[in-house]
Amino acid sequence: MTDTLLSVQTLSKSYGALKVTQDVSLDVHEGQLHAIIGPNGAGKTTLISQLSGQLRPDSGRVVYAGQDITRLDMAGRVRLGLARSFQLTTLLPSFTVLENVALAVQAREGSSFRFFRPAAAERALNDQAMACLADVSLADRARRLAGSLSHGEKRQLELAVALATRPRLMLLDEPLAGTGHEEAAHLVEMFGRLKNRVTMVLIEHDMDAVFALADRVSVLVYGRIVASGLPSDVRADAKVREAYLGEEAA
Amino acid sequence: MTDVTRTLAPSRPRLAGRLKLALCIFAFMAVVPPVAHALGEPFLIVVATRMMIFAIAALSLDLILGYGAMVSFGHAAYLGFGAYAVAILSRAGVNDLFLQLLAGIAASAVFATVTGAISLRTRGVYFIMITLAFGQMAFFFFVSFSALGGDDGVALTARSTILGMPWLQGAEGMFHTTLALLVLAFAGLYRLTLSRFGRVLTGTRESALRMQAIGFRPFPYQLTAYVIAGCLCSVAGVLLANQAIYVSPAYMSWHRSGEMIVMLVLGGVGSLTGAMGGALLTIALEEGLARFSEHWRLGFGLILVAVALFSPGGLAGLLRRLNLTRDPK
Amino acid sequence: MFNLFLLQLLNGAQFGILLFLVAAGLTLVFGIMDFINLAHGVLYMVGGYVMAMMMGATGNFWLSLAMVLPLTLAVGLVLELLVFRRLYDRSHLDQVLATFGLVLVLSELVRILWGSAPLSVAMPEMLSGSVPLAGPMRYPIYRLAVIGLGLAVALGLWFVIARTRVGMLLRAGAANRSMVSALGTDINRLFMLVFAVGAMLAGFAGAIVSPILSVDPGMGDSILILTFVVIVIGGVGSVKGAFCAALLVGIVDTLGRMFGPIILKSMMDPAAAAQAGRTIAPMLVYILMAAVLFWRPAGLFGRTVAR
After folding, report:
1. B114 interfacial to chain C (CB closer than 8 Å)
2. Within this chain, do residues A188 and A207 fall inside the same structural domain, yes or no?
């Protein structure tokens, strides 16, 4: 068994009477791809937001690489190597593709309190950014404005930006949502390649992708983990079939 | 990947266009004095100086409003700090322009740091109103400062000196000093907006969430921009006091802050050149309309309403639309 | 000393009530429509001028006051139809540009129609006396009437907001703007109503204050900024917050101007205290606002901003 990189311990969050996360515990092992599946409204994005630091849990702990990061903000977690991609794209539309990535490189390299030298002329920034773009096969779009990309390309860029922060763990929130068949296949292949380099937590609706990629699967229903284990075990679990996969089939 | 910098080309034409327009504005300004003399209308030099002073102020506001998406409604306070730095120092016998600039900038830096840190805890409508309130606070401070004339303001005995020389005494000295500072301000801000810092600021404007997701905490960058803008605006204040040879709290009233936003919106925000164009246009409209009627504010107000309703994006928006219709891409 | 305090407390409450009348409509406009309206103070001024005009024509205070309501309501409706309606989904900057333009237009129109000199409005006879306050102090009946009228309006607003369907929509809208449209209501009519009633309340405030203060073209400006302070302290979109904050601001401002110098005198020499008092008193409400926002960035009754 490999080491635990991220350990979530009895995490809970409510909005008023609505319990969106209930007593969630799970361990993500270094080097693995851990998928979290569940029906709509199960609280998957809320869970990811608590892991990334965008939302504060009401109780419970998040431990990353042996360090309690429950109270750390998003920027702080990113600097520790915990990156996140968003379901609704939050790219900077008036920046070029390259500039979007270069900004993420800039965040971890050197001070950003530099007021005079044009950032576009910094080779170090641009070279590293281009390398990330090459990783997601988007190098030929580097000069385009991010706002003008197709939906699938935006998902790729989203990934490149996350990669540029040099993550040890990536939280991916439905990276395949809204992509076409071909784009999805392309992205799945990319995750397959990245698996060797980065630990990933993947939220996804596309079951084919999940079972093709995941080392472990957890099922989230109404804010609770109802099953967790190897993909084959989870697929066979009666509770899961009833609560989720059955619903899909219906 | 032989030449990565070239991959940034798409923003180049936009930037180059802006730069060219800015150079046109500077060139146009530079020929004002000889033309004014040729026409026998020397007051045009005074008007042009006023235009450029407000262009500096508008540039400074554009940094936080256009690039940082911080709609400050209290920016005129910094005009006041600059102007009162001149009044207070000259009363104490210090007439040197650089010392006065330094004092105005220092006062602005302190005020901007404190009020900015509080204001930046809020967002949207709250930010607009809290900056307005801080502006009013500064306004009332000087209104009740009876030693400096209070509400009525105070006349200066003479304009400031530069290195002991009375270069600002004549309209042309005033004009050229202002032009030089305007060019400097534009060049500095232009570089700043392209720098690492500028990228972080602009990125925060587009999505604060994204910036946090790549590891930036926006606050220190926003606050720094807020302070820089305040300091630069106080430079305009120092010039304004010198040009009018008179200082009053009216420089810092909320009308003045509103007028500065109007300049930006008229010229188009977030392009620096637009800020200068907007300032020039606004002052030209005010001066022009005032020659027709004492009720010029009626016409000016109607123009503003019409622009807001029918030409979103101001002058820049209009130019862009004309451009698009001519050259559809 | 205590009597003086009581007197100033009443003055502060009366000023606060006025602020509330102006702020009530505006806080809803900010909260529900996310609309920056700088022209709201001008409606207060228009109320004052309409009152002065009507008094000149009829000489009857109550008739004039009754006329102010429909007329300012109409002004609000016209402005909404011609200008505001087209700006709801625009940026704050466009809204600032347009409403700043309106401030210039309406103030200048007033100057053209009535000149720049202050106008005065006579007090109705039945309210012109004063009643004994504790000891030898007396308090003008008219000011008490203003407080009473304001409280009545506040009570009416509370009823509308707490008990009626429109009120429910307003509360829902202030809490969550997208919810109102989700409810499938005719948004445009709701907005129009809020604007028009807000204009009427501001006009009403301008009218009832006219016998106490004079009517002049600058009256809208000074109240507008204080109204902003009230709205921000109370929390954008909260009428209850506006009410509490208005009283707070009215009382702090009035007492500060009166007692600030007195308190300072006990701490420093009289001349310095007088200067410091004059300087600090008008800044007091802004310091209050900064303090409130420092601890509660969304105001006293505002919904907390998700960060």
Report:
1. no
2. yes
Which member of C87, C286, C299 has the closest CB to residue B136?
C286
Residues A162 and A192 occupy one common structural domain: no
Is residue A127 within 8 angstroms of chain B, CB to CB? yes
| Complex ipTM > 0.90 | no
CA distance B126 to chain A (A): 22
Residue C13's domain comprises 9-126+138-295
pLDDT tens figures, B251-308: 999 999 999 999 999 998 998 999 999 999 999 999 999 988 888 999 999 999 999 9
Pair A197, A243 in one domain: yes
Q: Which residue is closest to B212 within chain C, CA to CA?
A: C307
- Domain range for A26: 1-81+167-250
pLDDT class for B3, splitting at 50, 70, 90?
A: very low
Q: Count the domains in chain B.
A: 1
CB contacts of A143 in chain B (<8 Å) are: 7-10
Q: A103, A127, A140, A171: best mutation site toward chain B, by most B Cβ within 10 Å?
A: A103
B224 neighbourhood in chain A, CB within 8 Å: 113
In a domain, C90, yes or no: yes
Q: Looking at the predicted structure, is the pLDDT value of residue A152 above 50?
A: yes
> Exposed, middle or buried, B147 (CB in 10 Å: 0-12/13-18/19+)?
exposed
- The residues, ordered by sequence, that sit 6+ positions from C127 with a Cβ below 8 Å of its Cβ are C141, C142, C145
Tally of structural domains, chain C: 1
Which distant-in-sequence residues (6+ apart) come within 8 Å of C107 by Cβ? Answer: B297, C42, C45, C217, C220
Q: In degrees rounded to 5, what are phi and psi of residue C41?
A: -65, -30
Chains touching chain A, criterion 3+ CB pairs below 8 Å: B
Residue A59 and residue A130 in one domain: no
Report chain B residues whose CB lies below 8 A from the CB of C86. Answer: 309
Exposure of A66 by Cβ count < 10 A (0-12 exposed, 13-18 middle, 19+ buried)?
exposed
CATH number of C263's domain = 1.10.3470
Handedness of CA C289, C295, C297, C300 (dihedral sign): negative
Number of domains comprising chain A: 2
Which pLDDT score is estimated for C304?
Answer: 52
Looking at residue A6, which CATH number applies to its domain? 3.40.50.300
